[in-house]
Design brief:
With about 120 residues, the protein is mostly helical. It is built from 4 helices and 2 strands; from the N terminus they run ββαααα. Strand 1 and strand 2 (about 15) form a beta hairpin.
């Protein structure tokens, strides 16, 4: 069977299903889990926005992580519902880029030691 030739049948409930959907165990639970992650991303975004108002410029990594979590959740929900599979895949790629950007923005800067600081490597 070729991937492009997915056989579509109808369940007793009238919903179309495919071989891929029959193989996925616990699809409803995965949907609930990803809605939970979406809620975590939204709450994290609100918390990081509040923290950003108190300490401007110090939480770019937290904002990027919250946005990435929300984008990832929306992408996975699109894939699970099989609504817009290409859009879901693009959102997963965008989330990956946002997570990498968050880790880059949150890294601690290297401390430069003066050359006469007595550091053994002469930094």
């Amino acid at each position: 069977m070729v991937l492009s030739e997915v056989v579509v049948t109808t369940q007793a409930s009238g919903e179309p299903t495919s071989d891929w959907m029959r193989m996925m165990v616990g699809r409803r639970y995965w949907i609930l889990i990803w809605y939970g992650f979406l809620l975590i991303g939204i709450v994290g975004g609100v918390a990081s926005a509040y923290w950003g108002r108190r300490f401007p410029g110090r939480n770019l990594d937290e904002i990027l992580r919250a946005v990435a979590t929300s984008v990832l959740s929306i992408g996975m929900l699109l894939l699970l519902y099989q609504v817009a599979i290409p859009v879901g895949r693009v959102l997963l790629g965008v989330a990956l880029v946002l997570f990498v950007g968050a880790f880059w923005a949150g890294r601690t800067p290297r401390r430069r030691f003066p050359s006469d600081s007595g550091h053994p490597r002469g930094f």
